[in-house]
Design goal:
Elements lengths: L2 H4 L1 H6 L7 E5 L4 E5 L1 H12 L6 E11 L9 E12 L2 E12 L6 H16 L4 H4 L6 H10 L3 H16 L4 H17 L7 H16 L1
Antiparallel strand pairs: 1-2, 3-4, 4-5
Length: 209
């Protein structure tokens, strides 16, 4: 199996729609959170209905810590995460824990946390976990990948227009580097890549002639 095929699933799901993220803080530092319902929708699109094409089974909740007659310090969830690629079902074990507070929906939060972390192992929202959302330009690019075909087409025309405005070779090189980064990050809509590359080639011939 080639490296490209190993990353085929990862590359399909690694770009997060900024619309379904928000900034949070734990008091010490800020970070980006992904809407778990959006992740569920994407996983359903890729694997099929929850509980059939993918999901969590064999859940086990365990209270940890705390002395006799005292409240447990935290709760741990152990489970098996499974997903289907083609006709083959795959699975792996995972565990998460959190501080226990009565009436704080610990079980629900642990299930959400485990699901999100397991999906991240497969590449879902990898750009968030790789801190790529700290780059404002990347966030703008990532939004394009989740737009409608018409919006992608309009954006591709803007890129082609930017290429056409290049008057010097240095400007064109910078533009090419920018497009190359979008290709590498997977934020450039593949259906418009040929047209953009053709525009780049034509402009390069014009500039160096």
């Amino acid at each position: 199996m080639t490296k490209a095929s190993n990353l085929s699933l990862w590359n399909k799901v690694n770009v997060t729609s900024p619309e379904y993220t928000k900034q949070a803080s734990n008091g010490r530092y800020k970070f980006t959170c992904v809407d778990p319902m959006w992740q569920t929708m994407v996983a359903t699109e890729v694997f099929g209905p929850y509980g059939k094409g993918w999901g969590v089974r064999d859940t086990k909740f365990t209270m940890l810590g705390g002395k006799e007659n005292e409240m447990p310090a935290c709760m741990m969830l152990e489970a098996v995460f499974f997903y289907t690629v083609g006709n083959t079902k795959h699975e792996f074990e995972y565990a998460v824990d959190m501080k226990y507070r009565p009436g704080d929906d610990c079980c629900k939060k642990l299930m959400t946390s485990l699901q999100s972390k397991c999906l991240s192992k497969l590449g879902f929202s990898a750009d968030v976990y790789l801190n790529m959302f700290e780059d404002v330009q990347y966030v703008k690019d990532a939004a394009i990948r989740h737009k409608s075909s018409e919006e992608k087409g309009a954006w591709a025309n803007e890129v082609i227009a930017a290429i056409d405005r290049c008057k010097k070779l240095d400007d064109l090189i910078k533009c090419r580097e920018r497009i190359g980064m979008m290709v590498k990050q997977g934020t450039l809509p593949e259906e418009h890549l040929d047209a953009i590359n053709q525009a780049m080639h034509d402009k390069q011939m014009e500039v160096i002639s």
